[in-house]
Amino acid sequence: MKFTIIGRKITVTDKIRGYVEKKLGKLDKFFKDESEARVVLGTIKDNEYIEAAIYAGGMIYRAEATDVDVLAATDKIVDVIERQIRRNKTRLEKKIKHSATLDSMLISGQDYTGGDDDSEFEIVKKKRFQVKPMSVEEAILQMNLLGHSFFVFKNVDTDEMNVVYARRDGKYAVIESVE
Fold it and tell me: Where does residue 27 rank: exposed (0-12), middle (13-18), buried (19+ CB within 10 A)?
């Protein structure tokens, strides 16, 4: 697994780097291809946080956690990402190099009690609407007027479909398609 570890308002020591690489490296057994991990460490008030995104086999597994200690937050991240992998194990089984069985123990030693729900995704509602060309600023205004957390629109500048969404930090982001 290739690691990119970034520190924001925190110094990433060799101890922290080694611990993060060791813990997240254990997840590499689930992936056939070379995977990449992007980890952001930082501090918010009196807590330390970690954001981790693992890119493997066309899938993205992402989690974030806060704790007083960055090492404890790392343990939380590993468990969350491992649960995501197990939840999607039927899709991943085709991509795993050798058909290793997934046992019920998490890397942290805790039992996995998540659902092994192999049922299909249930779509409860479909919406159709006309997509109007507009600027990003107009899309944000429209999203806020509707009280939604995201909004699909056709970008007037690029003539592409985009999605604007409200982030947890109160700022906004745009998702653009790439070919």
Answer: buried
Query: 């085709």: which residue's tokens?
Result: 94
How confident is the model over 160-175, as pLDDT tens digits?
999 999 988 889 999 9
Domain coverage including residue 166: 133-176
For 37-68, write each residue's pLDDT tens digit.
Answer: 888 888 888 888 888 888 876 677 888 888 88
**Residue 100 falls inside a structural domain:** no
Q: State whether 16 and 76 are in the same domain.
A: yes
Examine the domain organization and report whether 146 and 88 are in the same domain: no
pTM score > 0.90 for this model?
A: no
